[in-house]
Amino acid sequence: MIPSVLPTYSRAPLSFEKGEGSWLIEADGRRFLDLGAGIAVNALGHANPELVAVLTEQANLLWHTSNLYQIPRQQELADRLVEATFADTVFFTNSGTESCELAVKMARKYWYDLGQPEKTDIIAFTGSFHGRSSAGIAAAGSEKMTRGFGPLLPGFIHLPWGDEAALKAAITDTVGAILVEPVQGEGGIVPMPDDQLKALRALCDENEILLILDEVQCGMGRTGKLFAHEWAGITPDIMMVAKGIGGGFPLGAVLATEKAASGMTAGTHGSTYGGNPLACAVGCKVMDIVTEPAFLAEVNRKAGLLRQKLEGLVAAHPEVFDSVRGSGLMLGIKCKVPNVDVVKAGYDQELLTVPAADNVIRLLPPLTISDDEIDAAVTRLDAAATALAPQDA
Ligand SMILES: Cc1ncc(COP(=O)(O)O)c(C=O)c1O
């Protein structure tokens, strides 16, 4: 008999009653150190008191009005994002995949309104992940996500990650945009090198096509800059955001330049819940905290510390681990044993990590993780690795 919850997830046999900072706590009091943060969502930790306070305050005032009316909190958050980024304008969604939907629509409408409706193709990259909506799965294009769901949304060209010659050859008159994650998350924590991101921007400029960045997982301070593309000193035309921006409350956004967004006039897009007062109250507080220069400096310092300890861990367990990669507090350990075994061995040590493609485990802790918690995390990973390969010890 089919379970009452549609069985689309393979869930771990863990269930948490409450969260506190970097910790998730089961009903029996077992405390798990959370290096997954809800897959890069709880960027400021669980039950962050400042987020709880703004959410509670807003909940006592007003939950939902729809976008039929002005939403001052939404306006405030849009202004904050515009002030802090390349963007001139923002549309709010509730998730990353909804942000993907709009990014694709926006790019196509841009060319349509310019009188070049043939420029519908979007170049995307193998190993990428853009969500589970029809546009999201078509954009990523992997067999695993698309099989059985055809006909797929047409107009995506999939290229291998990092093949410059293939990229140049793929740019024809029907290509309107390139879509890329600056750091692939689900794909196994694969950062695109700064020079490649710069080259991508230059290629888009030369060919007058739009650059769409998916910063759903790598954005909002995760890599030590507010957005990951800042490391390369480039800006996109359109950017997808979600996850960390709501700190655990469902919130996403599409940020765009005035030019790229020029086709999106009244009536061309909408969302019942997108940008609701609850989400935007939390989003404003997340922005307050993450845009503090001292906050990002701390993310970078802690990222250096964690990375250094992980390099030591990998060296100590050469039969279990291969290498460390990533950017900021978006780190991956490529494993030699099956990554899911490492994740499970972590559960035995009351440590949560997240598997990704390419046999990688992802470490995406709350950006607020403390030095002591970093120590504890590495100690627990060490115990998990020892349990998997006792001969290493
Ligand atoms: C890079 C990226 N894009 C899009 C998505 C989809 O986001 P959501 O699950 O909120 O729809 C994800 C989710 O993991 C992601 O990592």
From TrEMBL:
Cofactor: record remark: Binds 1 pyridoxal phosphate per subunit.
N6-(pyridoxal phosphate)lysine carried by residues: K243
Keyword Transferase attributed: yes
Annotated InterPro entries: AcOrn/SuccOrn_fam, Aminotrans_3, Aminotrans_3_PPA_site, Class-III_PLP-dep_AT, PyrdxlP-dep_Trfase, PyrdxlP-dep_Trfase_major, PyrdxlP-dep_Trfase_small
Recorded GO MF terms: identical protein binding; N2-acetyl-L-ornithine:2-oxoglutarate 5-aminotransferase activity; pyridoxal phosphate binding
GO biological process: L-arginine biosynthetic process
Extra information: May also have succinyldiaminopimelate aminotransferase activity, thus carrying out the corresponding step in lysine biosynthesis.
HAMAP family: ArgD_aminotrans_3 (MF_01107)
Protein's recorded name: Acetylornithine aminotransferase
Source organism of the structure: Marinibacterium profundimaris
Upper taxonomic lineage: Bacteria, Pseudomonadati, Pseudomonadota, Alphaproteobacteria, Rhodobacterales
